[in-house]
Write a structure and sequence with these properties.
The chain has 419 residues and is of the alpha+beta class. The chain is built from twelve helices and ten strands. It has helices spanning 14-32, 36-45, 47-75, 159-171, 199-214, 221-228, 277-282, 294-304, 318-324, 327-336, 363-367, 409-417; strands at residues 93-111, 117-137, 144-147, 182-188, 243-248, 252-255, 265-270, 343-346, 353-356, 387-392. The strands form two sheets. Strands 1, 2, 3, 4, 5 and 6 form a six-stranded mixed β-sheet that branches. A four-stranded antiparallel β-sheet has the order 8-9-7-10, with helices on one face. A hairpin with a 5-residue loop joins strand 1 and strand 2 (117-137). It is globular and about 60 Å long. 42% of the residues are buried. Mean pLDDT is 81; it is low at 1-17, 34-89 and 370-384.
């Protein structure tokens, strides 16, 4: 089969040459072989055939190295070569918007035998988000992460680095470990931690998507969605189209038609106190859950969209969150009075309260958040400062990643520049 070599800008040094050769080799290998998970499945089903396949792959490894070396020499004067799959110039760096999510409703069904809780929820991706830059690095280097928020860990415990390590192990399994790329990431973060917005999970999902694009898309989006469940319960939703009915502990994601439009406004308000998901579930009273039928909630919200009332935006984690942080109930009640009255509800395990159909926070909230610099708001961890952000519901097409809504794209870009 024909192979394609993709190069990055050439510098006159052995290390840069090796890096170019490495990138070319990786993309040729990915082009020449099926996805690694398919090979493993085939091995289980047809052991004898798998032996022949492994021998063939071993021969192809040496062949592809030689072709990569030859191709790099011939194209060393070029900074990039068009990819046959996309028709666009391939790159060794990718900058993506990293979204967050809200739970329009969240029902806790039961506590499972494995200690997790069975849930049913309407998740929707929103455009309150961060920016993630992923750069391919030479093999053998340690993955790195830089972040503007000092309270965000930048070691291997960060979900971004966990996602990239997972991608390297699973999607590039046919490439010898010593020849797989390293990753160097910069995270410009706005979404606060402990907010119930799934910001960290969104970062991890974005990293997986970026790594796959940079490698020439060896994994399907279905693969990425399945793998992401091993990183965090919220991760799989980002590989849906935007609106998802989620069950299990979060790993079962069914795409649904969004009941909202990108004109429907949201206002997010989070106090400076983080709520631990574990602490909220510990305070959960399983005898005091809503009896609302999740499927009925889905149907009714599909009918009314942004006109959904508080009886539809049920969240079984509100009661324990309000028990742990009583002032959160007060915040919800104040937001419900915004703009002459609106539907307000908590997202996830908190502590963000969402006002549906509202763009402007009540005057008293602005007065209590002197750091408010724009309609997007800023996060300040000092006492009685609030994270306040406008947002919109967003969706995506398969093969594309999420982007800020047209209505708020400029505000997002300005907020990122200020970080």
């Amino acid at each position: 089969s024909s192979c394609c070599c993709v190069c990055v800008c050439v510098c006159v040094c052995d290390r840069s040459y090796s890096y170019i050769l490495h990138l070319a080799y990786i993309r040729i290998m990915i082009k020449s072989h099926s996805a690694p998970h398919q090979s493993r499945a085939s091995c289980r089903a047809h052991p004898r055939a798998s032996c022949r396949a492994r021998a063939s792959r071993a021969h192809a490894l040496a062949s592809c190295r030689a072709r990569a070396h030859s191709s790099v020499i011939m194209s060393a004067a070029n900074s990039s070569i068009s990819s046959p799959d996309t028709g666009a110039a391939a790159s060794s760096s990718l900058t993506l918007f990293s979204p967050s999510k809200i739970n329009v409703f969240l029902r806790i069904i039961r506590r499972r035998e494995d200690g997790f809780h069975e849930l049913a929820s309407l998740f929707h991706v929103i455009d309150c988000g961060d920016e993630l830059v992923v750069d391919l690095g030479p093999p053998g280097q340690k993955d790195t992460l830089k972040c503007n928020m000092t309270n965000v860990p930048v070691d291997s415990s960060n979900l971004v680095l966990k996602a990239l390590a997972m991608f390297r192990e699973r999607a590039l399994a046919d490439i010898p470990a010593a020849e797989r790329p390293s990753y160097h990431c910069t995270l410009r973060k706005r979404v606060p931690a402990g907010a119930g917005l799934g910001g960290g999970s969104g970062n991890a999902a974005t990293a997986l998507f970026a790594a796959n694009v940079l490698a020439g898309n060896p994994a399907s989006e279905s693969d990425l969605q399945t793998w992401s469940a091993d990183i965090g319960s919220d991760c799989p939703v980002y590989f849906g189209k935007g609106a998802s009915y989620v069950t299990g502990r979060g790993e079962f994601v069914d795409d649904v038609e969004s009941p909202f439009t990108d004109d429907d406004s949201l206002l997010l308000v989070k106090p400076p106190i983080e709520l631990s998901t574990g602490r909220i579930f510990k305070a959960l009273d399983l005898n005091n859950l809503s009896d609302a039928d999740p499927k009925a909630l889905m149907s009714q919200i599909a009918d009314v969209g942004a006109q959904a009332t508080v009886d539809l935006t049920v969240n079984d984690l509100e009661a324990p969150a309000f028990k742990v942080l009583p002032r959160l109930r007060e915040l919800k009640e104040r937001l419900a009075e915004a703009d002459g009255g609106c539907t307000s509800f908590m997202s996830g395990s908190g502590s963000t309260i969402v006002a549906l159909g509202v763009d402007t926070p009540p005057t008293e909230l602005i007065a209590r958040s002197p750091s408010l610099a724009s309609d997007w708001g800023t996060f300040d961890p000092e006492e009685d400062k609030l994270f306040i952000s406008r947002a919109r519901f967003i969706t995506r097409k398969e093969g594309e990643w999420f982007k800020p809504s047209k209505a708020l794209a400029e505000e997002h870009a300005n907020a990122i520049k200020e970080l």
